[in-house]
Design brief:
The complex is a heterodimer of chains A (457) and B (112). By secondary structure, chain A is an all-alpha fold. Helices cover 76% and strands 0% of the residues of chain A. Chain A is globular and about 90 Å long. Chain B is an alpha+beta fold. Chain B contains 4 helices and 3 strands. Chain B has a 3-stranded antiparallel β-sheet with strand order 1-3-2. At the A-B interface, helix 2 and helix 4 of A face helix 2, helix 3 and strand 3 of B.
Chain lengths: 457, 112
């Protein structure tokens, strides 16, 4: 089959292929492509009169060093390295977490923990007996997220000058969270507390991606990072819950009530520090969780698809009209957020070059059925929105619903094109990434414009 | 004369796209074409072409298909897409600006 009957040369090629195969970021198909190139080169060199092993030496030399080659492949396919921790430490082998990094992370985490106590100096205290002060609800993300952004800027070695603008969104957030004269029980105040973190998360994204604009690679990594952080955070929170329970139980054993310490200091500081530690864990231990998060997506995509289809079928079968309650809109918002999360996560954990498979069809089915269910709900709500009156909550929920609807509809369209072989998965990725600022923009709009628009009620 | 590494990296995309605009091709043939066009001045470590091609494929500027030749070996052929042509056009205009600018100042500085 091969034009090279000479045995030693074949062995040499096999050895070279083996070395190449072990390079991180190089796949079987790439090896095949490069081997084809090597053989073309060998054929030509031999035709020019070189002996087999001479030709091999020249051809391999021209191909370039395997390390450099592997690094270039890794750059072109950063997603492949996600599980191998080599992106920044390619030259010095598998990354060991350095001491400086550990101390820096501890420093940032402690800073975040202290930041949460900062308002205490100005008389805004956390106490187990009172409700969480609204000041905290509005400003919690402002105390923690800037430190997370700083951590990434430090970790990525970003230049100070070019990153200085990142202070602007945080400063703006601080202004808009605190200048408005919210009365007691204000809806717009709660909306601010909910939407500010979403808007600021985009600023964290800029720190994560080293101020890159929305080109697919690093921002898709950021989406992946966000999902992983959520999982890590839940895990840490579970551990924290156990830790809290033990603290309370043990001090109770000596008849002391530790609640003021636990809920005034330990829990809030821990919750803030955990954001930084979680982010660091995601960065450092990508390979550990890599096996878990895609499994969660794979597990729940079919389940939610079944639920939505079952719901639609039941509704069609029984003819039961949708019972339009006030909370309905928010419920469906959450449903769309969840579906969006599944889509984003599945997309970010997928090999963009793989051909369409069954799971992609399932994703399309999930998105399609979610759109249908949401359409039915919106139609039901639209008829009665005037009856309910336009409160800030409802307008915010409706706007968010439309923002998500457009995003999902676009994804469904691109998924369908991809499945029919008309488009690449890359175009879907680009759409998802390009749409991220729309979510943040809407959240920013709610924070900045809603309170004055609705008279702070 | 050896070309500067950064210069090679910056011009790789328009060069590869332009060669593919001439017709579909595969890695080895592209390298040969580059050598031919540059009169041998373009010294590329051959392997470096492939990450460039893969990146272009990912960006949707080229499409690839595996073709089995009559000798039984598989080859990955690359073809430029409509997006790729648009990108090539955009890059060409940028390079023209660079070229004209440099030319303008060099005429004055070293009139040889």
């Amino acid at each position: 089959m091969t034009p090279f009957a000479d045995q030693p040369l074949e062995e040499q090629i096999a050895q070279w292929r083996g070395h190449l195969r072990r390079q991180p970021g190089v796949r079987v198909a790439d090896v095949e492509e490069l081997e084809g190139h090597l053989r073309d080169q060998l054929a030509e060199l031999k035709a020019n009169g070189l002996a087999g092993d001479e030709a091999f030496l020249v051809a391999v030399k021209r191909m370039g060093s395997l390390d450099a080659l592997s690094r270039e492949f890794a750059r072109a396919h950063s997603e492949r390295l996600w599980k191998q921790l080599v992106l920044d430490s390619l030259s010095d082998g598998p990354a060991a977490v350095s001491n400086t990094e550990t101390f820096a992370v501890l420093g940032f985490a402690v800073a975040a923990a202290m930041a949460v106590q900062l308002p205490g100096l100005f008389g805004v205290h956390l106490s187990p007996n009172d409700e969480l002060p609204l000041f905290y609800r509005r400003n919690a993300c402002l105390l923690v997220l800037p430190l997370l952004a700083l951590y990434f800027l430090w970790k990525r070695g970003a230049a100070v000058g070019s990153s200085l603008w990142l202070a602007v969104p945080f400063a703006a957030g601080a202004v808009f969270a605190n200048v408005f004269p919210f009365p007691v029980g204000s809806q717009t105040q709660v909306l601010t507390a909910l939407h500010l973190p979403i808007a600021l998360w985009l600023a964290v994204g800029f720190a994560y991606t080293r101020n890159r604009w929305f080109t697919d690679g690093p921002w898709m990594d950021f989406v992946r990072f966000s999902g992983e952080l959520a999982i890590y955070y839940v895990l840490i929170a579970l551990g924290g819950g156990v830790f809290t329970a033990f603290t309370m139980m043990m001090f109770k054993a000596i008849d002391l009530d530790a609640a003021w310490f636990v809920f005034g200091f330990m829990v809030p500081c821990g919750a803030a520090g955990a954001v930084i530690v979680g982010a660091w864990l995601v960065e450092a231990k990508q390979s550990v969780i890599e096996n878990m998060a895609p499994v969660l997506t794979k597990l729940f995509t079919p389940l939610f698809t079944l639920l939505l289809l079952g719901f639609l079928a039941t509704m069609a079968w029984t003819g039961q009209p949708m019972n339009v309650k006030r909370e309905l809109l928010i419920g469906f918002d959450l449903l769309l957020v969840l579906v969006m999360g599944l889509v984003l996560y599945a997309a970010s954990a997928r090999d963009p070059e793989a051909p369409p498979d069954f799971f992609d069809a399932l994703q399309l089915l999930l998105v399609g059925s979610a759109l249908l269910v949401d359409g039915v709900a919106l139609a039901a709500i639209a008829g009665r929105i005037s009856e309910f009156g336009l409160t800030p909550n409802r307008v915010a929920a409706l706007g968010e619903n439309l923002v998500l609807l457009v995003n999902l509809a676009g994804s469904a369209w691109l998924y369908a094109r991809f499945l029919r072989g008309r488009g690449s998965f890359g175009s879907l990725e680009r759409w998802l990434v390009a749409y991220l600022p729309v979510h943040a923009g809407w959240a920013a709009l709610v924070v900045m414009a809603f309170p004055p628009l609705f008279g702070y009620r | 004369m050896e070309l500067n590494k950064d210069l090679v990296a910056a011009s790789a995309t328009p060069l590869v796209l332009a060669i593919l605009a001439e017709g579909e091709s595969y890695g080895y043939a592209i390298i040969k074409r580059v050598a031919e066009l540059s009169g041998g001045h373009w010294q590329w470590t051959d392997g470096m072409l492939y990450p460039v091609l893969h990146r272009l494929e990912r960006q949707g500027f080229v499409e690839a298909t595996w073709v089995t030749s009559e000798t039984g070996r598989k080859r990955k052929y690359y073809r430029i897409t409509a997006d790729g042509r648009a990108q090539l056009d955009a890059q060409r205009q940028q390079w023209q600006v660079v070229d004209e600018t440099l030319r303008g100042v060099w005429m004055k500085v070293c009139p040889a």
